[in-house]
Amino acid sequence: MASSSHFICSSSVLFLLCFQLFSSISEAVVPASDTFTYVNEGDFGDYIVEYDANYRALPPFSNPFQLCFYNTTPNAFTLALRMGTVRSESLMRWVWEANRGNPVRENATVTFGTDGNLVLADADGRVVWQTNTANKGVVGFQVLPTGNMVLHDAKGKYIWQSFDSPTDTLLVGQTFRAGGPNKLVSRLSEVNNIDGPYSFVMEPKGLSMYYKSPNSARPMLYWSSSEWFTIDKGSLSNLTVTSIPDTDEGFLYYLTFEYFTTNPTASSNRNIAYTKYNNTLSYLRLGIDGNLRVYTYNPNVQGVAWELVYTFLDRDSMEGECQLPGRCGKFGLCEDSQCVACPTPSGLSGWSKDCDVKKVTSCKSSEFGYYKLEGVDHFMIKYTRGDGPTKQSDCESKCTKDCKCMGYFYHTDRSRCWIAYDLKTLTRVGNSTHLAYIKAPNK
Ligand SMILES: *[C@@H]1O[C@H](CO)[C@@H](O)[C@H](O)[C@H]1NC(C)=O
Ligand SMILES: *[C@@H]1O[C@H](CO)[C@@H](O)[C@H](O)[C@H]1NC(C)=O
Ligand SMILES: *[C@@H]1O[C@H](CO)[C@@H](O)[C@H](O)[C@H]1NC(C)=O
Ligand SMILES: *[C@@H]1O[C@H](CO)[C@@H](O)[C@H](O)[C@H]1NC(C)=O
Fold first, then answer.
1. Measured between alpha carbons, how far is 392 from 408 in angstroms, rounded to an integer?
2. CA distance 76 to 199
3. Residue nearest to atom 6 of ligand 1 (CA)
4. Of 102, 152, 106, nearest to 131 (Cα)?
5. Which atom of ligand 1 lies closest to the CA of 75?
6. Nearest-CA neighbor of 89 among 303, 283, 298, 300?
7. Are 345 and 369 in contact (CB under 8 A)?
8. Alpha carbons within 13 A on the beta-carbon side of 199
9. Which backbone phi and psi does 131 adopt, to 5 degrees?
10. How far, in Å, is the centroid of ligand 2 from the Cα of 163?
11. 349-358: per-residue pLDDT in tens?
């Protein structure tokens, strides 16, 4: 159809017809036969899916991706894309979702209308989520075999794509952009699909992971790509998870971050992992625990199709799991990826999940003090410089004056100071110049 219209336009005698044709393009609509409304009702699916959820599969499907409603708590559904095939019998996973933190109920609808807008509405008609693409030239909807769900115009250009609104997952081909989608936010828990405290962010000079404490407005840095790859000149403009077959060897497939910088414009790759099979079906996930992992899906194997191919904070890696803020719960000492002790005012005791700080409820400096730990670092220290050089007494008085400060960390060899608004996991570093002072009530 498109080619015949071009033909009409190029024949110069048919001005009038040509004009009419253009005005009809500007009002392009979705053919009625391609519109849909799916209602969240009926029986649940039979297969095992991530988070032990119930789900209802909807018709939009492109192997191995399918649009579904799922719920982990009764009558609170998320519209999501599921990855995995029935045939592989492996757990199917949720790789994109529309309405985290804003669930819908039974009889909610997802509608693609002639105006080209895709709308998720609750049973009472309240619009919960939409693509905001009404009358923008959208003529079609598609779930692509890459897991990208798109609304495209008559020329095939994407007016909207799910790849531009990641939650905690990046599929191969999905891109972070400066000034665009540039971060993942963890899920709070398997059951509770709201934003968790961790984020993974593309910044001008690299990638970072942050923990957002309820005690502090400022997120705390617990990982940075700085030791792994650095942007010496310019700043990152975009970064894509890419699968690259090794053409020399022929049987290796690399998963990489392919990135571009501006000022100057340059491109580069940083390999993350490789497999001996085609790993185009892979994703990067910021987990509930704040760790970042890469999973591949190999539909050709018998049995478990998923493989965890890379963990950023791994017990076998340089970082170790001790860099994970929540590794040892609310308060614990970590060594070689293990939780080894509970630091208390009267010394170290055995670690348990219940280890916690003694809460200081008063802001009066006469009502609290500090207890000292030697050879210990906070998770934020590895990638931040702290303040200084400064005297330890100044570091302490800064913490004392700040009700929200839970303790401070001080390196005597470099006279640097860190104020901690949350403690979580401390790491044993075996360096007596690294000191921690934890606030505790006097009685
Ligand atoms: C959903 O809608 C149908 C048809 O209108 C109705 O029979 C059913 O009771 C509704 N379900 C719920 C849970 O409200
Ligand atoms: C990334 O940026 C480069 C340079 O600005 C551009 O050529 C490229 O198309 C961009 N890639 C994506 C996937 O947006
Ligand atoms: C890898 O698989 C994808 C689809 O799953 C396919 O498009 C691509 O051509 C495959 N690559 C190679 C090198 O076989
Ligand atoms: C302690 O850490 C400092 C740097 O922070 C380093 O120069 C020094 O060698 C370390 N000492 C030991 C015993 O590891």
1. 10
2. 24
3. 107
4. 152
5. 13
6. 303
7. no
8. 16
9. -90, -10
10. 15
11. 999 999 999 9
**Size of the chain, expressed as the number of residues it contains:** 443
Q: pLDDT for 33-55, tens place per residue?
A: 999 999 999 999 999 999 999 99
Q: How far is CA 191 from the centre of its chain?
A: 17
- Show the tokens assigned to 36: 């849909």
Burial class (CB in 10 A: 0-12, 13-18, 19+), 436: buried
Best residue among 277, 278, 297 to mutate for probing ligand 3, ranked by most atoms within 8 Å of CB: 278
234-266 tens-digit pLDDT: 999 999 999 999 877 668 999 999 999 999 999
Name the closest-CA residue to atom 3, ligand 1: 107
- How far apart are alpha carbons 122 and 106 in whole angstroms? 8
Tell me which residue has its CA closest to atom 1 in ligand 1: 107
CA of 40 to the centre of ligand 1 (A): 10
Best CA proximity match to 274, nearest among 301, 243, 298: 243
Closest CA relative to residue 41, chosen from 53, 57, 62: 57
Using an 8 Å Cβ cutoff, are 221 and 383 in contact?
yes
Distance 429 CA to ligand 4 centre (A): 9
